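ok, trying the design again with the full structure, not the truncated one.
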């Protein structure tokens, strides 16, 4: 007997549904080498640094590269507290991934802590968001196709924003022609 599952719109996914958990932690006095070993062992790109039971910062693989490796520093001598990003930027677990992505872009970060009732319960990375993006693109494309079909039946010229199917450049003036979205410049060629 087949079990019917309810389809979820990926655009409405919450951070909780996509985040990584449990959070891997370290302490401020651990060396960068110790932190890197934890990252490798747990297959994660960040460690939350905790002091007295409270998160005080985050060390990412990027921090290790930018603040230790690229400067030729000894990872056995540099401490997590010396390179950690602080404070930890966070998003609520019930926020949508779209809102979280906007927040991350605005703050120019690739990872944020995920909070639930004021505690960090997970980590959300840009890769977690990208993992569900193809489904969002498919939904958006289908919606565009439906709108396009409806408008064509009304014989109106309608412009769309997106990438031109001929030259692959962004345009706010795409028109569907023979099933392709073509920019103004390519239409005149």
């Amino acid at each position: 007997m087949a079990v019917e599952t309810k389809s979820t719109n990926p655009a409405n996914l919450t951070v909780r549904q996509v985040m990584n958990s449990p959070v891997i932690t370290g302490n401020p006095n651990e060396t960068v080498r110790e932190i890197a070993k934890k990252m490798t062992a747990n297959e994660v790109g960040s460690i939350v640094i905790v002091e007295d039971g409270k998160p005080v910062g985050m060390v990412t693989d990027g921090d290790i590269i930018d603040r230790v490796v690229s400067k030729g520093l000894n990872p056995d001598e540099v401490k997590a507290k010396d390179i950690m990003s602080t404070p930890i930027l966070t998003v609520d677990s019930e926020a949508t991934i779209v809102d979280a992505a906007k927040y991350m872009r605005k703050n120019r970060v690739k990872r944020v802590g995920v909070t639930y009732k004021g505690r960090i319960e997970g980590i959300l990375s840009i890769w977690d968001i990208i993992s569900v993006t193809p489904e969002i693109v498919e939904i958006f494309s289908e919606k565009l196709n439906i709108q396009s079909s409806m408008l064509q039946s009304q014989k109106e010229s309608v412009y769309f924003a997106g990438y031109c199917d001929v030259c692959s450049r962004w345009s706010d003036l795409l028109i569907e022609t023979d099933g392709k979205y073509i920019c103004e410049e390519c239409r005149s060629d």
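Keeping the full-length input from now on. The mean pLDDT is 85.
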